[in-house]
Design a protein that fits this description.
Keywords: Disulfide bond, FAD, Flavoprotein, Membrane, Oxidoreductase, Signal, Transmembrane, Transmembrane helix
Structural class: mainly alpha
CATH architecture of the domain at 6-93: Up-down Bundle
Strand content: 5-15%
Cofactor: FAD
Domain ERV/ALR sulfhydryl oxidase: 1-43
Largest sheet: 2 strands, antiparallel
Order of helices and strands: HEEHHH
Number of strands: 2
Helix content: 55-70%
Pfam families: Evr1_Alr
Organism: Aegilops tauschii subsp. strangulata (Goatgrass)
Distance between the termini: 62 Å
Oligomer: single chain
CATH topology of the domain at 6-93: Four Helix Bundle (Hemerythrin (Met), subunit A)
CATH class of the domain at 6-93: Mainly Alpha
Shape: elongated
Length: 160
């Protein structure tokens, strides 16, 4: 079992999201292809969850390096997105693996936040995988376009 708890899954998805955003921020900066309508950012920002940050600093290339307090990040994620996702994970995935009707000390199912959405765990993982695949394909496509552009310019200069 890759994830032993809803906490493990949630922190993995959050961490992967931030890693992808870090990579895209660098690529968009280098290539000048960023979309100001959808800026890439490390999440959550310190303004939303100051206790999630143990410390932060900038690297020589300007990237934000954060020492995260995962014991604060997980409760923040649950509070921000709602307890429904955690409950759904426990109800479907964990029960199917362990054959139980109840797993551990479950969070209250009736608790939710304005950001909550009930999503089957398989669907959430499918969307995450598709998003990562699309990002990789978009990066590949941009690289090919850039190579064609420079190849065309180089070919044009040789004729002169």
């Amino acid at each position: 079992v890759p994830f032993k708890s809803a906490r493990d899954l949630s922190l993995w998805l959050w961490s992967t999201h931030n890693k992808v955003n870090e990579r895209l921020m660098k690529e968009e900066k280098d290539m000048g292809t960023g979309d100001p309508s959808f800026p890439k950012a490390i999440w959550p920002p310190k303004a939303l969850c100051p206790s999630c940050y143990r410390s932060s600093s900038r690297t020589s290339d300007g990237a934000l390096q954060v020492d995260w307090n995962e014991d604060e990040v997980f409760p923040f994620l649950v509070n921000y997105y709602g307890k429904t996702l955690v409950s759904s994970y426990k109800e479907t995935y964990m029960e199917s693996l362990q054959g139980r009707t109840q797993v551990g000390a479950a969070l209250a199912d009736d608790a939710s936040s304005s950001h909550a959405a009930r999503v089957p765990i398989g669907a959430a993982l499918g969307v995450a995988a598709a998003s990562c695949t699309f990002g990789a394909l978009a990066c590949f496509w941009r690289t090919q376009q850039k190579n064609r552009k420079y190849s065309y310019r180089l070919h044009s200069l040789k004729k002169i």
